[in-house]
Structures are given as C-alpha cells and as structure tokens.
Amino acid sequence: MTVMAIVLAAGQGKRMKSKLYKVLHPIGGKPMVEHVVNTLEQINAARTLVIVGFGAEAVKGHLGDRVEYALQEQQLGTGHAVLQAKEAFGDEDGITIVICGDTPLIREQTLLDMMNLHEATGAAATILTAHMEQPAGYGRIIREAEGQVSGIVEHKDCTPEEALVKEINTGTYCFHNKKLFEALSQVTNNNTQQEYYLTDVIGILVRQGAVVQAHCMEDSSESIGVNDRVALAEAEVLLKKRINRQHMLNGVTFIDPDNTYIECDVQIGADTVLLPGTLLRGSTRIGEGCTIGPHTEIIDSVIKDEVTIKQSVLQEAVVDSCTSIGPFAYLRPGARLGKNVKIGDFVEIKNASLDEGAKVSHLSYIGDAVVGKHVNIGCGAITVNYDGFNKSLTEIGDHAFIGSNVNLIAPVKIGEGAYVVAGSTITDAVEAGDMAIARERQVNKPGYADKIKARMKLRKSGKAE
User: Fold this and answer.
1) Domains 3-223 and 250-436 share a fold
2) Binding site annotation covers 139?
3) Which H/E stretch holds residue 56?
4) Mean pLDDT of the 433-443 span
5) Non-local CB neighbours of 91 within 8 Å, separated by 6+ positions
6) Which amino acids does the record list as binding UDP-N-acetyl-alpha-D-glucosamine (predicted)?
7) Is the pLDDT of residue 208 over 90?
8) Does the structural domain 250-436 have CATH classification 2.160.10.10?
9) Among 168, 215, 178, which Cα is nearest to 1's?
10) Which positions are annotated as active-site residues?
11) What is the pLDDT of residues 76-95, one digit of tens each?
12) Which of 304, 264, 299 minimizes the C-alpha distance to 278?
C-alpha cells in the first residue's frame, strides 16, 4: 500500500523566543524537522509533504527537494494545516502519516508498528499514543471495552474518571487517506480557540462507525514535542543517551557517557575510548582503537585507527593511523596528517599536509604548507604564509630539520635533508643537504649591563644628569 506523509511545520514557535524558526532548532546536530523527514524516508514514504508557514523559505532552503511543500498562510489549527495537503494528496489511494515537525525522537520502528496495526485491523485512523504517569496537559485516549478507540478528550474537558486515564495522544496519526480528507471537510471551528482541530476527525470517524485504533509506543520518551527551550534541552539529553548507547553496543568505550556528546551522523570504530568532555560533530569518522579526549572537539573530520587526541580541536581535518595530537592543538580546515605524526601542545595546523613521521612538538604554526616525511619542526617555528594580500606555500622536504624559533617566509622551499638553524628567518630556498643560518652575529659588550643598571638607579633617585 502506498504510504504518504504530512509533516506539520507551520507554527512560529513563539515559546522558543528565537529568531530561528522552531522546527529548525537542532538536536544531535540536525534540525528537528530533518530528524522527522529522515524517519519518514526510512519507512519508505512515497511522498512527504511539509506544511510550512512562518519561516517557509528557511525550511525549504534546508530540506530542498527531498519533500513537497504546502503553505498554511494563516495558522487556524492542526485540521486546517492538514487540509492544505488536500490538493496534493486528496485523491490518492493509500495511507497517510500525519506527524509534527517538532517531534524528532520518534523512531522508524514505532511508525512501522502503528502502520502494521492500522492495516491489520482495517482501521480508518490509528492514533500513536503513549503511557504517561503524569498525563496532565495531554489529550486522553478513551477506549471501549474491547479496546477500540471511542474518542480523544482534551485535558481541560476531562471528567474526573477520564482524567485518571494515562494513555495520551502524541499528535501522530495514520489515516486511510481519502477518509481523512472526507472527514476534514466536516470539521468546524466552533470552539473557544476558533480553530480547526485534527482530533475532531477521530470523533467524526467514530460516529460514522469506522474503526479507529490506537497504538501505544513502548518508549514514551519518543513522544516528546519541543515547544520551548526546556523541552529542547530534554530532547537533546534523550537523543544523546540513545546515540551513546548504540555506540557502546557497537564496541566503543565511554568513560563518562553523561559528559560525552556525539552527533547523529558520527561513525566510531570498535575499541575506541572516549574520555569525558569529548564532542564529536557533523560527519566525523573515527577509526578503531583510538583514544579521544578528554575535552576534545572534532568536527567533520576523518580519524583513522590507533590515533590519540588530547584536549584539542579539529575541524575538517584528516588524520592517518598511529598519530598523536595534543594537548591543546588546533587543526583547522585542510589539515592532513600522515601516519605516526606527532602534533604537540599549542600547535596550530591550517591547510597543510604533514607526511609520515613528521613532528611539530610545541608552540608552532604551520599554515599553507607541504611537509615531508620525518621532518622535525622545533619549538616556536612558524610558516609565514600571509603577506596581507595573498597566502603562499611553504615546502619542506623529507628528513629536513627546522630549528626552534625559525620563520619560513613563504613562498619558500626547504630541500630534502636540509638544516635550518634556530632563530633564523628564511626568505630564500634552501637546497637539499644545505644548512641555512639567517640571523645577526652575536655581539657581547663587556660590563655594559652594569652601566645600564647604574644609570637606571640614578634616574629613579632623581640624580640623573
């Protein structure tokens, strides 16, 4: 049977108190509405239509042509929102999932279970429900003795007996598509809010004698709808636990899962150890047997096997196996490290490749450079890559030695096996096997330090001539 989906994403989300459109607020590194669309793609929905209103262009800009769109110019309730899909879906045969764009935690299997119940019972509508020990504020699911749903009662309208019901409406539904739009045509706005409610469709179908079912999800935390920053933080915590648990089941060690943050698309190999304060973001891929952290952030980077990274930040970097980084290193976009490279404390690498066995142990900046195999770059050495107008390249050949506090003024090339003496400022090429010295010769003035000190004492006493 054809599966279609309608995502309700037209609300402004005033309670978020944000310039950012509500469903674009991220959790786990992705906007909420993208989580919903991803789940619908996983259940093989043939068509997904997103109802947009406020911030429509921002949503379209993010989701692109993955989905279809319908505009709800005035927010007149959930029933009115779904009605905007009638032109696109009204005549289609099949079933339609209706889901809110601010419910990012609903899983693929939960939707499949709801759909299976819907099809097996020939229902006109199936409501996704959850069991809540504290159901205040939620609409209650009222069932007949044999279990069929007889209606949804909003909390404010509950009788004392109905208020005791702990099965609540999550706002996600599965409908026989044509029956959905037929019932929607009968929904009115005769209520205190003067809005058209999708829940009224359930009552209409029940009165028509149609079968209405409810599927209660196993994990009620999936039902969370994000309407403010408090709920956003709660959803973030729940998703983090879900992601971390899956990585642990896949063989990754978390020393402190509560203080380790992994975004949705990150991949991590078995036997990798994550220390507290680790943040792995974007499309980062971590190999096997690595040790990451503590207090390390890695964004959109590729880290191969047996790498150690301590208290460092990496963004759009590529690190080959058996390399060590940190503490307090910064690898910026375009950093590419070979095997067995050592990057030490307070080293910054930008748009530079360092081949196998290269070492930059401390207090250095390597930018716009190609560094060969087994090069040693001493403390405080920098590649001077920017002249105020252009970025230029520094090339360092295999087995070269760059002494401490050396400035390599790009564009410049240091040949294979060359030796640059500490404190030098190099502006010209150094040929292979050569040694370069570019500094003033030291001059000592006997007794001159004592003369300077005596002069300063006189000035402080006011006796200076």
Assistant:
1) no
2) yes
3) helix 56-63
4) 93
5) 178
6) 8-11, 22, 72, 77-78, 139, 154, 169, 227, 332, 350, 365, 376
7) yes
8) yes
9) 178
10) 362
11) 999 999 999 999 999 999 99
12) 299
Q: Please state which architecture CATH assigns to domain 3-223.
A: Alpha-Beta Complex (3.90)
DSSP assignment of 66-91 equals GSEEEE-SS---HHHHHHTTHHHHTT
Tokens representing residue 249 in the block: 């089941």
- Interatomic CA distance for residues 128 and 173, integer angstroms: 6
Query: Residue 250, annotated ligand binder?
Result: no
Fill in the DSSP letter of residue 321: T
Does 197 count as an annotated binding residue?
no
Q: How far is CA 26 from CA 19, 34, 40, 71, 244, in A?
A: 14, 9, 18, 22, 18
Contacts of 291 (CB under 8 A, 6+ apart): 272, 273, 275, 307, 308, 309
**pTM, 2 dp:** 0.91
How far lies 105's CA from each of 88, 99, 100, 181, 447, in Å?
Answer: 27, 12, 11, 27, 77
Sequence-ordered list of residues with C-beta below 8 angstroms from that of 49, at least 6 positions apart, any chain: 4, 5, 6, 7, 67, 68, 69, 70, 85, 88, 89
What is the residue extent of each domain of the chain?
Answer: 3-223, 250-436
In the block, residue with structure tokens 């402190």: 256
Q: Which two tokens stand for residue 73?
A: 């110019």
